[in-house]
Amino acid sequence: MSEGFENDHYFVRQFDDITIVRLKDESLTGSLETMQISDQLKQMVEEGTRKLVLDLKHVRFCGSAGLGMLIGLNKKLQAAGGQFVLSHTEHIDQLLEISWTAKLFRIAADPKEALGMFK
């Protein structure tokens, strides 16, 4: 594991070639903040990230902007030949189910389980 870095919205850790991003925000409902996070995560993919775990441990609320971010990031990683896993989705599981989008994602209980999904 290498040292992590952080900004106002997330903390990043690197485990070999797997990047774990833990969001700090409780809400993915505000379109401006969500768009900023989305742009930064997509930039990571453009810069070479191919195995990404998005840890939603602190996220309590997710709206259409947040769901759109998750779908867009998943599509970008797939187009780049990458893999995407969501962890700690317990607070957004209902949204993923009622929006029929849960099947789009690989979901792990926590980042440790997510790391094992890349092996």
- What's the CATH C level? Alpha Beta
Helix content: 25-40%
Beta percentage is: 25-35%
Give the N-to-C terminal Cα separation.
16 Å
**What is the β-strand count?**
8
CATH architecture heading = 2-Layer Sandwich
Total helical segments: 4
Largest sheet, spatial ordering of strands: 1-2-3-5-7-8
Main sheet properties = 6 strands, mixed
Low-confidence parts: none
Q: Any idea what the CATH superfamily is called?
A: STAS domain
Instruction: Round the mean pLDDT to the nearest integer and report it.
Output: 92
> How big is the Rg?
13 Å
**Overall number of structural domains:** 1
Reading the helices and strands in chain order gives EEEEHEEHEHEH
Shape: globular
Using the coordinates shown, work out and report the CATH topology: Transcription Regulator spoIIAA
Structural class: alpha/beta
List keywords for this structure.
single chain, 119 residues, alpha/beta, Transcription Regulator spoIIAA, six-stranded mixed β-sheet, two-stranded parallel ribbon, 37% helix, 29% strand
What is the strand and helix layout of this fold?
Elements: E1 2-6, E2 10-15, E3 18-23, E4 27-28, H1 31-46, E5 51-55, E6 61-62, H2 64-79, E7 83-87, H3 93-98, E8 106-108, H4 111-116
Parallel strand pairs: 3-5, 4-6, 5-7, 7-8
Antiparallel strand pairs: 1-2, 2-3
Helix pairs in contact: 1-2
